[in-house]
Amino acid sequence: MAHNNDLGSSAFPGGLFKSIRTKLIVYFCLLFTIVMVLVGIFNTFGIPFSTYSGRQGEQREEAFQSLSLVADLKKERLLRWIEERHDDAHMISDNDLIRTSVSQLLQTANKHLTSQPSSSDLAAFEQEDNYQGLLDFFRAVIASHEVYHAIYLADAQSGTILVSTDQADVGQNIRHQPFFTGVLENGHVFISDIKINPRNQRPYLNLSHTIRNKQDEVMAVLIIDINTDDILLPILHTGEGLGQEGEALLVNRDGIILSSLKHPLADGTQARPLEYQIMAEPAVRAASGQEGVIEALDYRGEPVLAAYRHFEISSEGGWGMVVKRDRAELFAPLRRDILYTSVIAAVGLLTVIGFTIVVASNLTRPLRSLSGVASKVAEGDLEARAPVTTPDEVGHLAVTFNHMVQRIQNWQAELEAQVKARTTELYDSEERFRFLFESMLDGYALHELICDQSGAPIDYRFLDINPAFERLTGLSRDLVGKTVLEALPGLERHWIDTYGQVVLTGQPIKFENYAESVGRKWFEVVAFSPAANQFVTVFRDVTERKRVEKERERLNRELMDKNRELEQIVYVTSHDLRSPLVNIQGFSRELNHAFKRVAAIIEGDNLPADIRAQLQPILEEDIPESLQYIFTSTARMDSLLLGLLRLSRLGRVALEIEKLDMNKIIADLTDTFEFRLQQANVALDVANLPPCLGDEGQISQVFANLLDNALKYLDPSRPGIIKVSGCKQGDQAIYCIEDNGIGIAAEHQPKIYEIFHRLNPGQSDGEGLGLTIVHRILDRHHGSIWVESEPGQGSKFFVALPFS
Ligand code: ADP
User: From the CA of 708, how far away is ligand 1's center (Å)?
Assistant: First the structure.
């Protein structure tokens, strides 16, 4: 559970996106915002890589068109204004009346106006009719044209002002003024640059025009001072299309302003006409003769959109005109639009958020409910079930989830029951093993092997021992934690080596060994390695068994010696006894012959009848009977002695052990017994027999004796059946010779192997040696024999011999 919790908290970091609802809201709002922003940007600034330049681009284009229009209009008005001034000058100058008046006045002037005219001369000159006529005409022109500040007339030859609307000028010489020299040079008309009138400190310009006589000779020069402010300001500062902040301005060829500016300069001062040179790009371009539109900074440093024009008005050089609008003012509606659009978008966003919250809440409610239930289940509440409120996928998920939880609950119950059962079993098992551990007679110890740097075992440490260990070794429990060499410094090295092999190879081992250092005892030890570098020993004290085994071996050896001795005695005795027996048999036969001769003599007539009568019973009964006894007994004794000799010889004959084909041995024996089997009408049934290891002659003898007995002890009252069978059992071959003969009573069965023991001596031939020999041969072959028999039913003799 702890693991799951960790996974739950660490696998999904980030608080904001913990719920689908938040994700939906954020994603929808993000989407809406991105779309709105993109629409806004494209709408305002155009679509990249397309011809659509957006509202800002359109507005800029419109603004440039409008500014160009205004600039062209103003340029046209200025040009027309100048044209009108030209026409005015032309109308005044090319007038016959004026020409006549000027011509006459020039004649008078030569009389009155010398190089240094006195005031009386001037007064007299001013009284001239032509003078007054011209002056009145000039004053009438000024009165009808407000833009004209002064009109005066100068002698073309001397440059002296002859007539002027400003009386103080009369008599002044202007022959060095550019407007005078200029008009004489180019012939007809000259327009000066705008300059400041020193009298009234207002900007003005001069328009000069020649007045020619009938011979087209220049008589005089007409000069009109034109007040430029009065005409330029209305032209420049009136008209539509420049907004609040927009303006038109005029500069001369050097970029010096010819009209006053609408706005103060960047430093806050107001620039005066003809005193301030504009370095702003539009003005510079216009002054240098270029025409066009531009977005640049103006003289205040404000970004503006401007149209600039150039025109040649002055005879002294061209003028530049800049018509401009502040960028900020121009795009203010657009910014306002963007602001409104943003407000609308924000309202839309809020609406989307609200709508998304509602939708997301509705959509995720069953999911959150499911998630809550899942959390409860994760915390272990398997009773929790998700409510199925909708028929959609989430409802289906809830049903599946509930089904899953139900299955988990079932599994858990099942598992708990299993765990409980296993725990009980384990507890019982642990109890049993603990009891076994504590009470077992075998010693138990758990050790840890200690090796040197090369990995060779050099010692081992006791980790645990049981009470039997203490009892068997005489060592106390304090041993735990110590190494064996600490506890038993004199321990034989082979113990450590043997256990080292168990740990290093992992192969368990069982062995017996002697421990001089542990109470001089023999131990039978089973050692195995339950874990890396550890081994367990389970051992028992076999000192007593070892002692008994040794004693048994000693006794066996003694017995074998005695047996051998006995066999020797039997052999020698039976062999030696046969010599006197042969003598007895021989002399008995001699005695019989002698007796027969004596009997013949006695049968003669020489012996008295009473003596014959007395000898009669002796000769006919006692002596023959005694001799018969002697013959029978000696024959029996000879047979016994021969039997003993055979038996004693068995022990001395060396065995030639080989693998025996028992089928062949039985077949050979069957041939030998063939005649007797036919005589007795016996059915012999021989099955396939497994081979065995043995000496062929002696094993053949075993089966010959058993078959002989089976034949001998058949029941004459029923047809005899003899069966020979065999099988392999483990490492032994088991053979069975079965007959349906007279059988052997249970109480006699143990005795049938005893020497000379016969159950029914009178009923059959035999010496009671056959089974004794069989037993002896099988002993020597490490085999065995046993019988199963019932009197009247038959007998089964089983022979076990080594198979391999
Ligand atoms: P014997 O020369 O008498 O046959 P054995 O040592 O061969 O001597 O047998 C000992 C006695 O065991 C026999 O006298 C007989 O009474 C009994 N015996 C042996 N084989 C059988 C058999 N197949 N059926 C019944 N009795 C048997």
Answer: 9
